[in-house]
Amino acid sequence: MLGLGRNGLRKLASRRGLSSAAAQTSNTTSTPPPQQQIQKQSTDGRKNNFNKINKPFVVATPVEQLKLQKKYQENLESNKLDSLHEAVEYIEWRGTVFPQTVTKIVSLLERSSDLSTISDRQLAVLLSVFGATCDTLSRSIRAQHLEKVESILREKGVVLGLISRNQLIEAKVDNRSRVDAVEELGKFEESGVELDAKSYALLCEVYAKQANTKAITDIISHMKSSGIPLTEDHVAQLVYSVARSGNYGHVGRVVDTFSTSMNVVRLRCAAARAIAEREKNESGKGGFEITEMLRAIPTTAKLHSLENNVYVVNVLMDLIENGQFGAFNLLSSYLIVAESGTTLADNKLNLPVVARAKSLLSEGSLEEAIVLYSCVNPSYSNDFFVQNLNRQLENRLRDIDNTEALNEFLKVLTLAENKGLLPSANEFLLTGCSQNTVPMFAEIFDYVQQFGDIRSVFGQNPRLKKPIGRQLAQQLIKTVSPSEQAAIVAKIATVMFSPSTKETPEESRGFYQIMYKICGKDVKLVLPALDLMTSTVWHEKREFGTAIVQQLLRADAEDHLASEKLRILLESNKIGQLAGHRLHGFLTKFLMANKEKRVNLVAKILSYEFPPETLAKNTLKFGGRNVAKFLSNEIISVETAANIVNALEEEPRVQLSNEELADAKHVLKSYPEKAELLGKLKKSATMQRWRASKVSELLKELSHFTEESKEAVKLSLKRVILQKTFKEYHDDIDSLVNVLEQAVEWRKEKMPEALKTICKNLESYALSKAVSTNDLILADRIWQMRSGHLIPEVLLSYASRLFLNGEVERADEVCKDVRNSSKIIRPQTLEKMGRHLKGVESEKMTELAEYLKKSFNLSAKDARRVVLQAKKDQLNQLIERDDLAGALQMAIEETSTSGRAFGQIPLMIEAIKKNDAKTLQSVHTMVRSAHNQDMANVNLAYALIHSNNVNKAINLVERQNLSIESPTLQYFTTLASASENPILLKDLFIVFNGRASTLDLNNLLEMATRKLWSKNDMDSLTELSQVIESTSFPLQNKLRTFFDDLKGKNSTSSSVEFD
């Protein structure tokens, strides 16, 4: 040592600038590593022990190793080691060190009172676990443990020997901890330990990281003078330091100096690693410089030998760790690669790559770990790495709380998918969201949906539907905007009804009730949601529509609005198609509950068995067969079936080909009458053309038919003409009459009853239009062309017009026809007719009433109904002219004449509006005189309600202890309903709650809820609900269900049960 000794070396180091190493730390996580030898050295800076380390799990083992493995098998992933000696055996023979093993060794060292039984070699073995031996812990955590162990050993007075001291420094270098070479020299001196070649190699490595070439040359000079042999371990660090300082040109000269005695590949690769570290922050990551450095390796150096290629692998790993993700392609010509050219060849070079990938993963460098692991040959695939990667990705997914972090995470996921480590990034996202609460769930779902993977993910994993649907439903509860709510409903429907071969039809139908509840048992969210579901999710849209229709049919017995909701949904034309065959059972019950009113709704639902016209040519159709199956039910009569078919005939999408018709008739072979009806649904190209043409064009075409033309064809065209006339000429009375004149000629030939019925309806409609415009000339033409008895209401209006115009004889003729028809004239018909005769003076209306009374033997009360509307019109005109005195006088006179109060409601309302107490008192007195005090007060209460003085009305009713009779409440209900102000119905219930019969109030509530629901007035419905609850009003079953559902919808804690 040039006569310096240990103290002299330390002083030499101080004089020659041997400075402390810079601190290098990072954070990571873990998975179990492959076997590693304890005294592991850097393949560049330390002796190459590659052949002794990183052996695969499946290797030939001696008997003693098998014995020890069996002994510690149960403790492999636990911390059940009982002593430090067992830990040494475990580490030496097993090689794999888990995080819990590191923790256990720290604990054993803390508890041990006597460490004198542990040899220096054994202590080195224990210290090795705090370095690269445990690649399942991050460098920062290993460094923390090592610092603690060093403190424990110092407290317990343990003096480190050469082997353990070297191992301690090596572990610190592995962990990239701050290492002060001068300080370490001092510790060697204090311990009385002479440095060996390895010690100097470690100190050279410390200075190489700092690019302190001068310090390394001083150490090398000292070694030469001390007789310590110079090895590749030392020269490699010298080359690294020269390159690290940026003197790339000098590297070649240094390498050439030692090329005859040392491995050129190792030295050049050491320089390449230094370049990678120096250029890691540059755009190219030093890729060009590195390839130039490797290109200089002579062919005689055997670069592609297994022993030498390990150094190139180290360069590869450094480049990838520094962010050069194209490093494999960059270095592929220098690596031993598989035939595929995408991974390393099947050899032990994969082991350090797996180890480094796990180390990067443990430090949280996911992208680098993924890219590096993708270089590994499939034969060396590591399940622990993949499992830990998935675990870390799941943890990151749970912690994402902003868009920027999400975008970065999606890049990592996409990289993992592209590298084959994830079967599907989007499947991983949805699976993670289904198992955990993810703050960015909404954004993640939108990303997957925009990617177009929703159907494929849920098709393969139907088990994810409920948890994802549940999270979307929670979002729906928190959302206020109707448009946003509709968008969420559309998403839920897309999830729940994604087609899956792994799901049974019963399981799919199990989502029907869930979706119905999610939509609030209503269609207000369904309609905009259907709009948002495009043709790319036609199956999901069809199932969603089917689900809502089925649930509405099912709820008919409990929901008094079910029919109205169905009508709105079906008439919206937002449903593309329905799986109607699933609805037949519910549809039959729905039809039988009210056959007359529900035929059209049922037919509309059945029509959705057929695809839309735009898809009809390219879609398999089973509509005809399914309609036939529905009609084959014995409970459906031939008459009802005929009505259904007639309604289906009007649906453009209902088209049966010859094959479909034959198939449908085969289903109905036991019911020939029903089967014959289906012939109407066969629509040829000619029929389609007719339906698209104008009436005038069709009339012209019909005129070209000859006697040889088929009768069926002519009848079909006549039917189409009459049907289109209703739609095309509903306001053109002249055109209506023109078509009727053509129909007169048609009647000379044989006509089926259905066609005659259409003619009569058209005649009634045309006559009504002529009477309403007081065009008696046209009315007379229609009357003369009539094909039979028309609707009584229309004929009465026509007779009344004739009478009022002085044509009594013709009026007698019309009245006689009405009497001959034997049809009942109902009071409502007389009132409706009176409303059609607005503007006629009340004196003439009185004469008309007497005329009709004699003509039809009406009662005085019924006859009065005819003139009542005219008098009401006159009264309203006086009020509008602000002539309250004249209106009051008229009301008093009419009340005196009839003995019943007349015009009291509009007069009271106007008096309250004008704050005219005198007129209000006069009207009150008039009603009291005609009836009684209570009736006058009840009328006043309604007037107050109408004037938005509900509290005053309540006070009046309570103060006078009023009750209201059924006819009066029904009258007020009719008035409120006619005003198109459903709030009046609500207030009417609130005021008279408990003052009328429960049945009448339930009927009032049913009408109020129906109209308030149509207006979407949820505030008024909520107010009603609160009043009902506070007064414990006894609701009928349907209303109780309605308000229970309403209460559930308004509940902030409401949620949908998915299980």
General description of the model:
This protein is mainly alpha-helical and 1059 residues long. It is built from 57 helices and no strands. Among the domains are: 695-786; 882-960, no CATH class. Mean pLDDT is 84; it is low at 1-62. InterPro entries: LRP130, TPR-like_helical_dom_sf. GO terms for molecular function: mRNA 3'-UTR binding. Residues 13-51 are annotated as: Disordered. This is Leucine-rich PPR motif-containing protein, mitochondrial.
Topology of this structure?
Blueprint: H1 5-15, H2 63-72, H3 84-94, H4 99-111, H5 120-128, H6 139-155, H7 162-174, H8 181-191, H9 197-209, H10 213-226, H11 232-244, H12 248-258, H13 264-278, H14 287-295, H15 306-321, H16 327-331, H17 350-362, H18 366-373, H19 383-399, H20 403-418, H21 425-435, H22 441-451, H23 454-460, H24 465-478, H25 482-496, H26 505-509, H27 511-518, H28 526-532, H29 538-554, H30 562-571, H31 584-593, H32 595-607, H33 623-631, H34 638-649, H35 658-667, H36 672-677, H37 685-692, H38 695-703, H39 711-728, H40 733-746, H41 753-772, H42 776-785, H43 792-804, H44 808-820, H45 827-836, H46 842-856, H47 860-880, H48 884-898, H49 904-913, H50 917-930, H51 933-946, H52 950-960, H53 966-978, H54 982-992, H55 998-1014, H56 1018-1031, H57 1037-1050
